[in-house]
Specification:
alpha+beta, 24% helix, Tat pathway signal protein, CU044_5270-like
Length: 311
Amino acid sequence: MNELELLREWDAEATPLSDTARTRARFRLYQAMRAPASPVGLRRRPLLRIAVAGVAAAAVTTTVVIAQGTDSAPRTQPVSVATVLRGAAAEERRLEKPIAPRDDQFIYTREVIKETPVGGGPSKTYVDESWTSVDGSKRSYVSELGHTQWVPRDKPGQSTWPPSRWSELKQLPTDPDRLLIALRDMGGKPDYNRPTSADEWPMVHIFLSGLLRDPVLPKGLRPAAFEALSTMPGVKLLPGRTDGDGRPGIGIQYVGKPGTPWADGGPVFIFDEKTYRYLGMQDQRKAGGRTYNQWSHVAAQAAVDRVRQRP
């Protein structure tokens, strides 16, 4: 009998874990197996869902070049992680057009993904359109990198991260500090009085970054997530980045400790270098023995009445 068979038989009469609890368990098992091995980055762009977060952290300050105008020389201005992310939260609150979908509707999204092979090669752009059931009671129709598929309706007790059901997303706190604790204590009752330990931050990061990958969130939740990210340890600022359309921006990236996922850097969230408006995400994926740089942003979102209906 090998170790896997032992695991299968252990406490076989117990109630099966939820998807969220299973994700947490796998992450902790992964950490135990990897330490003290060499660091490995979790890079694969997920089909619909996976995370970030934070609370007490020193903001990393970097100097970026800001152009004053065509007739003046560029000047330098110190910018911090907190400045960019709080500015992004303010822009999101100013620009967001919240939706209030009915349970019988679908969330429509159109996401643009540009990929370029590392080491050279032609770029390719995908336009992914997806229709996700608001309450999970209907089949969803999703696309990733041009591959479409029907997703079965939710089964009783089924859960995903980020939540696919709008009602579950709306239960998440829009207060940054409380959001971090809710993500840390996922699956149980949040303990808002307990400090977060150092070994809990990577898991919080996974849940928060997965939340930020979700193309559509209830009003106030994305700004809260940006502000939560601004306070977490292990976040750094990357000036001189561009988004998939070549617009100049500033990157924000979580970097874990050696031996943990994303030790060499996680996905990069890119913000406009002047307004701090969120522009999209830069990441990498591996397929067929090759590595691809990937830029993505959401081009459209809405609540619609049926699959393949566009706003």
